[in-house]
Design goal:
About 30% of the residues lie in helices and about 25% in strands. α9 links the parallel β17 and β18. By secondary structure, it is α/β, with parallel strands linked by helices. A seven-stranded mixed beta sheet has the order 16-15-14-17-18-20-19, sandwiched between helices. The protein contains ten helices and 20 strands. The protein has three domains: about 60 residues, PUA domain (Archaeosine Trna-guanine Transglycosylase, Chain: A, domain 4); about 120 residues, Transcription Regulator spoIIAA (2-Layer Sandwich), CATH 3.30.750.80; about 190 residues, 3-Layer(aba) Sandwich (Rossmann fold), CATH 3.40.50.150.
Length: about 400
């Protein structure tokens, strides 16, 4: 295994168990590791401090262990079993009315660069680093050992998440088993999961708890679900007793999917309609008196250079919604941009309320669910921010 040496004093973040080594901290590497290779990390004083995957870019090493452990089958089994234990302890794995959950959440489960979502007996695995891509078959074998009969299929979906400069020629596909069954259950509701071509792993697992909160507040309300994608919020609102639910997405494919999911749970229910329309245009022209609005846009800022533009986008979006909402309405508004802090998002919404000339109260401050844990040594893992607002 190749050895990487840090510049003097650059080991302090690793002593605090932060799982990244930035390229600027690297003094030199013995040999010529290939991207995705395992490297041992040493201080300038020649003291072992970590082992992880080597990668070209600003993050040079994603740390797998701060012990001098062999990274092999037993390592993957231990880490995956620990992740499963967490999901069992919080009640999302093995629940009779829920087979949809995140099993591995990257740094939050001490497996940086790896995502695994469970949909019934199918795991969708996603690599965000070359190292995890290189290790995918070893991880799949360990995953099968840990999950046993609860796992029949593994779909590998990393075509768009791996750095293109690595030139891996990666294609999505099953690496274990195969199934035409794309239906999974979340809190007793059924959803088609588009793991073949859908966003993320095919479903936004991270909004499960927030969808339940929408259900709780939907009775008798006229609900607008913007950026609806698979329609998760829409289906929960219908079960919650909404009098009307409208779903809007710029993608016709998403509109077809939300219609399929509504039909799967509420066949022939006339309360729901879906529209393929630009969000800003729809909000500008809408004349419905929606009194519960959900704004869950895609990430407006995927890196720090886009923060200023993103904040303007969140402000404009929320202001347009607030301007049209009747008194006593509820607004569920979110940001999934890791680059945007909670304070920045809250300020954008505050500015929107001012521009709309509305009195607004914060009822809830929302975040990602427990199966998307945040490593206490890696605060960057907190990415989902949300507010529930009472609009007067």
């Amino acid at each position: 295994m190749k050895k990487l040496y840090l510049n003097k004093g650059k080991e302090e973040s690793l002593r605090r168990y932060h799982p990244w080594v930035f390229s600027g901290a690297v003094h030199h590497v013995e040999g010529h590791p290939q991207e995705g290779d395992l490297v041992q990390v040493y201080t300038a004083a020649d003291e072992f401090i970590a082992v992880g995957h080597w990668q070209i870019g600003s993050i040079a090493v994603r740390v797998l262990s701060f012990e001098d452990d062999p990274i092999g089958h037993d390592f993957w089994v231990r880490r995956l079993r620990a992740a499963l234990d967490v999901r069992r302890s919080i009640g999302v794995a093995g629940h009779p009315h829920n087979d949809t959950y995140r099993l591995v959440h990257g740094e939050g489960d001490n497996l940086p660069g790896l995502i695994v979502d469970m949909y019934g007996k199918t795991a969708v695995m996603q690599a965000h680093s070359v190292g995890m891509h290189v290790s995918r078959m070893a991880i799949a074998e360990a995953l099968k050992e840990v999950m046993g009969d609860a796992l029949q299929n593994i779909y590998y979906k990393s075509e768009t998440t791996l750095p293109f400069k690595a030139e891996l020629g990666q294609e999505n596909g099953f690496i274990m088993g195969s199934t035409p069954d794309d239906i999974a259950v979340e809190n007793g509701l059924r959803f088609h999961i588009d793991w073949l071509k859908g966003q993320k792993t095919g479903f936004f697992v991270d909004q499960r708890d927030n969808r339940s909160l929408v259900e709780q507040y939907s009775k008798g309300r006229r609900v607008l679900n913007m950026f609806c994608y698979t329609g998760g919020f829409s289906v929960y609102a219908m079960r919650g007793g909404a009098s009307l639910v409208h779903s809007v997405d710029s993608s016709q494919k998403a509109v077809d999917l939300v219609n399929a999911n509504v039909e799967l749970n509420f066949p022939g229910d006339a309360r729901h309609k879906a529209f393929a329309e630009d969000a800003f245009k729809y909000l500008e022209q809408m004349d419905e008196n929606y009194d519960l609005v959900i704004l869950d846009p895609p990430a407006f800022a995927k890196h720090r250079d886009a923060i200023r533009h993103a904040i303007k986008g969140y402000t404009k979006l929320n202001a347009r919604a607030m301007e049209k909402m009747p008194q006593g309405s509820l607004l569920f508004t979110f940001s999934c941009s890791q680059a945007i802090s909670k304070d920045q998002f809250r300020m954008a919404v505050f500015t929107a309320a001012t521009l709309a000339r509305r009195k607004v109260r914060i009822l809830h401050q929302l975040h990602q669910p427990a199966d998307h844990p945040i490593n206490i040594y890696h605060p960057e893992g907190e990415y989902l921010k949300g507010l529930v607002l009472y609009v007067e």
